[in-house]
Amino acid sequence: MMTAGTVAEGPAVDCGARLSACGIRPTAQRLRIASLLLAAPQHRSAEQILASLRAEGARVSKATLYNTLNLFAARGLIRQLSVDGARAWFDSNVDPHYHFHDLASGALTDVPVPAVHFSRLPDPPPGTEIAGIDLVIRLRKKM
After folding, report:
1. Statement to judge: residues 21 and 58 lie in one domain
2. In terms of domains, do 70 and 134 share one?
3. 28 with 62, same domain?
4. Staple partner for 15: which of 10, 34, 86, 131, CB 3.0–4.6 Å?
């Protein structure tokens, strides 16, 4: 059974149901953005998403796109990543995982949680608990 955070495969993603399950009203523009993002696991910047939408003939303003992406991330439909400080990335895979970041191309690749082992984490400050770990492993060509 698919939950609101699970990424479906293939073009038959029921975006309206996914949006509704996350408490998001499925407007035409939101559906179009969701269908682009949720069709496959991917990492895209807002600029890349906007370019793809416009290439498909969609008329979406930057403000609408950013508002929609922020809403999707806040409701857990997608995950917003800060990788290099230059721009935000949006990840359609919200299941726990880490990332490789290719410094030359900018590409992000998922790293499964079991592939990484932490031997020890610091104790959190009193009254807090660890809610998650974001790990970006930066890659470059060997010299």
Report:
1. yes
2. no
3. yes
4. 34
Same domain, 77 and 39: yes
Instruction: With beta carbons less than 8 A apart as the criterion, state whether 54 and 60 touch.
Output: yes
- Please check whether residue 91 is in contact with residue 43, taking contact to mean a CB–CB distance below 8 angstroms: yes
> What is the Cα–Cα distance from 93 to 91, expressed in whole angstroms?
5
Q: For 41-57, write each residue's pLDDT tens digit.
A: 999 999 999 999 999 99
Residue 122 is assigned to a structural domain of this protein: yes
For 43, the enclosing helix (H) or strand (E) is strand 43-45
Q: For 70-89, what is the mean pLDDT?
A: 91
CB 109 within 8 A of CB 99: yes
pLDDT band of residue 7 (cuts 50, 70, 90) is very low
